[in-house]
Design a protein that fits this description.
Structural class: alpha/beta
Order of helices and strands: HEHEHHEHHEEEHEHHEEEEEEEEEE
CATH class of the largest domain: Alpha Beta
Largest sheet: 6 strands, antiparallel, barrel
CATH topology of the largest domain: Rossmann fold
Strand order of the largest sheet: 12-15-14-13-16-17
Shape: globular
Amino acid sequence: MESDMGVRRFYAVRGVADSEGRPPYSTAVRVIALVSGGVDSAVSLARVVADGHRVEACYIKVWLEDELDFLGTCPWEEDLRFVREVTARLGVPLHVVPLQRAYRERVVGYLLDELAAGGTPSPDLLCNARIKFGAFLDWAESAVGPGRFDRVATGHYARRVEGAEGPELHQAADPVKDQTYFLSRISRAQLERLLFPVGGRVKSEVRRIASRLGLAPSDRPDSQGICFLGGVRYRDFVRAHLGERPGPVVEAATGRELGVHAGHWLFTRGQRRGLGLSGGPWYVVGKDPDRNVVLVRREAGLPLRRFEVDQLHWIGAAPSPGSERRFQVKVRHGPELVGATLRPGSPGRGEVVLDVGDPGIASGQFAVFYEGSRCLGSGRIRGETPAPDLAG
């Protein structure tokens, strides 16, 4: 039953109705809104309230106090203060959901294993698939109750579009803020339950809405880096967990040893800083994790055009096996898309051939596949082949 305060709240935030037209559902549904303390999730929450849905908010706590407090200050308490202000203003009940253990096992464990193996991990992709829309949905089904909610709303910049065969994941209206790269490991079953209330707006408009509604984080800076680290330096976190293992820094062209590094897991392809070498600039162009060798050149690495992918994942139906397929590809978060061909290999694997070479590709990153604005899925980059002749 809607209280008088709830009715006033509904009309107070009515101005956030989406420019795309009517609400995503013709009747009110039960929505859990994930809130983080940032402006995007605050406006997302306001939007589903304005659409007349029955809304509860959840803040997912993944901060690893025992592992991180000695490295820096804890950011989650400030985040939660903003969350409480926003939910109180909108009159929405709030749950704080402790998922530190699941995060440690499903995301941090992956990050450390990938680094130790010489790769460049992408933990935010795994966080969405395994935590926000994995472990969290498991928690909601047990704690909030089966059948107690229909959809989960988030502040991600992405769009859900109803296609002929079910919901599709499409890029956001703001190409710079678009986050489909980070959502490329979710399943269609997860997508069926998701709402992206700010996906049809650009960031500047989202901030204006937050300011107009008096939501606390309207001018709060966007978070940077890995979501659970807060103010902790990534390099310090890695060093604390994997330690140091001195090894040689070797010039790739000559095999000449130039210096000593503290552990190959502290470096990634394309890196310039932190090598401690004179006569530069020097660029990391590769690693040999078995020998703990970091390879460098005076110039950035050769553009890479071909690389293998494994762990192929498709949000909808997989492409027909045994035939090449044309896509557009992102090899990192950002607006740039490159034409590419995916050549099938053994199950779950393939070879990607880019139309234009890229010098910053590293094993462990993800290649994300697009068809127009639609995000189809992704694969983990597991090897790369230099392409001196990009016209070949």
